Amino acid sequence: MAQAVVIGAGPAGLMAAGELTAAGHDVLVAEAKPSVARKFLMAGKSGLNLTKDEPFETLLQSYGEAAEWLRPMIAEFDAAEVQDWARGLGQELFTGSTGRVFPTVMKASPLLRAWLRRLEGAGVRIQTRWRWLGWDGDALIFDTSEGTQSLKPDVTILALGGASWARLGSDGQWADILQQKGVALTPFAPANSALSVDWSPHMTPHFGAALKSVRWMAGELDSRGEATISATGLEGGGLYSLTPALRAGADLVVDLVPDLDAVALQSRLDAKKSNTTLSQWLKKSLKLPRQKIALFHEMSKRCGLPQSSEATALKQLPVSGAALRPMDEAISTSGGVRCTALDEGLMLTAMPGVFCAGEMLDWEAPTGGYLLTACMATGRWAGRSAVDWLRTG
């Protein structure tokens, strides 16, 4: 009989398991998929951005409305702690020019293998292909390859992820189970999402091209970062942080020449020779690449912008028709278990002995290391809180 059951073998669940086993508890980790940490490994395909090496208060601001709720958890496992933890697993790290921290090998698999060796060496048991179905009375029920399994642990950690990338394990189906138990949830919504744009054939030659040196704006949010023109729309880190504003209905606007102020831009435009076409001027005077010129013409025509407003359009070009891609395609999701449903230790107030961690909690953050940092920090916090609860209960 496991004293503690952790459901979900992503970063949050594995962190919680580590805390419980370090305190001497018998721990079983149940994972629905055939292998563990699939979304973690997928993130590693682009280098595994572990955290952002920046001052704590700056780091915390990236969690928006949830910042104060997460403050104590991230304070105990901030960017410096994340790096020390990874180095403790034998991983060499480097920090990029923007402060993003990566393993030198630019992969997630070596770190995960070392992590699993440590946990298994400490006695943690991991069962894959165990899908949690909910409770039968006070017993956890699992659908497994060997039939239905029932467990009655002393403490349970739920680390079930959000509702994007269902094929990797985060399908959000747990929400119905918790709602039936009276747990307050915020509906899921896409976060760090790509955008759908119904391009004209004029844009087809530019699919796969990157829009660099641009400034994106939506509502009160803005971002300097690149995005890629795809067959379905736009995607990239420069756009992801704007998802909250776009989700709320704000229009997307792009500044194609963010390093040139409006006055200087108008002066250059006024000096354009009468026999020079606008496309020639954009290319030769402003040095804009083909994909920027194509986007300018696409959106200027679509929005019916008058010819006299070229300078304004270059600085504030509406990206007409942009909409968030389906939630399952988003890098992460907002929504989940509300902070009001939890005590300070991340235990469900409606269900003593049941703790929650990771992306299933109602918080969101942009890409750049913030997502993984908070998942691990909340997993660690829930694990330590569960240890305290077992000790005092």
Brief write-up:
The protein is α+β, with helices and mostly antiparallel strands and about 400 residues long.
Q: Total number of helical segments?
A: 14
Q: Helicity level, as a percent range?
A: 25-40%
- Pick out the low-confidence regions: none
So what's the oligomer here?
single chain
**Taking strands numbered 1, 2, ... along the chain, how are they ordered across the largest sheet?**
6-2-1-10-22
Principal-axes geometry comes out as elongated
Structural class: alpha+beta
* Cα-based radius of gyration, to the nearest Å: 24 Å
Per DSSP, what share of the residues sits in E-state strands of 2 or more residues? 15-25%
What integer is the average pLDDT?
A: 96
N-to-C span: 18 Å
Number of strands: 22
- Largest β sheet strand count, sense and barrel closure: 5 strands, parallel
Explain this structure to me?
- There is one protein chain.
- Helix content is 34%, strand content 22%.
- The protein has 14 helices and 22 strands.
- The longest helix has 23 residues.
What does the secondary structure layout of this molecule look like, with pairings?
Blueprint: E1 4-7, H1 11-22, E2 27-31, H2 38-44, E3 51-52, H3 56-61, H4 67-75, H5 79-88, E4 93-95, E5 100-103, H6 109-121, E6 125-128, E7 131-136, E8 139-144, E9 147-151, E10 155-158, H7 174-180, E11 185-191, E12 195-196, E13 210-211, E14 215-218, E15 221-224, E16 227-229, E17 233-235, H8 237-240, H9 243-247, E18 252-255, H10 262-270, H11 278-284, H12 290-303, H13 310-315, E19 317-318, E20 323-324, E21 332-337, E22 354-356, H14 370-392
Parallel strand pairs: 1-2, 1-10, 2-6, 10-22
Antiparallel strand pairs: 3-5, 4-5, 7-8, 8-9, 11-21, 12-17, 12-20, 13-16, 14-15, 14-18, 16-17, 18-19
Helix pairs in contact: 1-14
